[in-house]
Structure formats: C-alpha cells, structure tokens
Amino acid sequence: MDDTVLVRQVLNRNQEAYPELALRCARLILALCRGRVWQLEGTKVLAQEVFLRCLRDLSTLHDPRCFGPWLCDIARDVCRNWLKHWEN
Which domain holds residue 19? Predict the structure, then answer.
C-alpha cells in the first residue's frame, strides 16, 4: 500500500492508517529537522509538532500524491519558526 492510499484512508477517518503513514515518514522528518536545528532533543520535539500539524491539516492537502513534499514543507516551516523563536 502506498502513501496515497494511506492518506485517503486517514481522510476517510480510518484512524489505524495514520500511525503507519507517520512511521513511514518519521526518519525523513527527523533527518530534515536534524539538518536544520542540530539539536537531537529539539529534533524530536519538532518532529512531533510536524506530525501534529500534519494530522490537523491533512484535509487541506489537495492531491494525496503530493503528501511527501507537503509534509516536508510543514517540517521546514516548523523548523523555521523554531529557529526564529530562539534567535530572539
């Protein structure tokens, strides 16, 4: 089963599909956050925020085939906001 199918299942309120979808992307999101933040503990917190936003905003994804890039955009935004907060 590919990510597109899982995204559609989550959108159809199949609660069992989301953990599998998140697990598939967890390493990518952790690596992306780690590359931007450089703090292991901060990386884990940021990744959790990414997946919370993903679950909250998944209905705004217009094309389930674009899930990966969409999720990476969320991760970049979360990291950017975190860095702005700590720069001040």
Answer: 3-87
Instruction: Please count the structural domains in the chain.
Output: 1
Cβ neighbours of residue 12 under 8 Å, at least 6 residues apart? none
Q: Which residues of the chain have pLDDT under 70?
A: 87-88
The count of C-alpha atoms lying within 13 angstroms of the C-alpha of 11, restricted to the half-sphere facing its C-beta, is 15
The predicted model scores a pTM of 0.90
22 close to 51: Cβ distance less than 8 angstroms: yes
Residue 9, domain CATH: 1.10.1740.10
Cα separation, 61 vs 86, in Å, equals 29
